[in-house]
Amino acid sequence: MTVLRCIGTAAGLTTILLACATVVFAAPKANQRTGEKPCREGMLGIVSMLDAKTDDSDNYRDAYSAIVETCGPIAPAPKPKEPPPSRAACRDLAMAMVDLVEDGKMNTKAFVKARDDFALACPPR
Fold it and tell me: Which of 41, 46, 93, 109 would be 118's cystine partner, CB 3.0–4.6 Å?
């Protein structure tokens, strides 16, 4: 009876360890990038907020961070200038990123440049 109890306990512990290992190794990596669809939707959300002049909202701040930090190839994000330049070009800069995504060029240097131009000109207020 004692042997069976030990075998049962060992089997239970093994199952728990395997489950924990699966969760740890299946967790997203810190450098995992967002896909084209969520990035495109985020960029279009940015355009809508710019059109509605709500680019001083928490939603804009969250969308801006998500786009600049997770869309496209990994590259250091540029530091926004102080004071920020005119926001007149922000809509066009966001649409340039949308165009690159729709052309299948999100993982290119051209996208990184467009993303950096947007990040510099259009930081949250």
Answer: 93
Give the start-to-end residue ranges of the domains of the chain.
1-30, 36-121
Query: 99-107 long-range CB contacts below 8 Å, 24 or more apart?
Result: 101/36, 101/39, 101/40, 101/43, 102/40, 104/36, 106/36, 106/39, 106/71, 106/72, 107/72, 107/73
Mean pLDDT by 10 residues, the chain (125 residues): 50 36 34 84 96 95 94 83 80 97 95 94 89
Q: Are 79 and 119 in contact (CB under 8 A)?
A: no
Cβ atoms of 108 and 61 within 8 Å: the answer is no
Q: Token digits for 43? A: 């960029």
Dist CA 6 CA 82 (whole Å): 66
Burial of 72 by CB count in 10 Å (0-12 exposed, 13-18 middle, 19+ buried)? buried
DSSP tag of 89: T
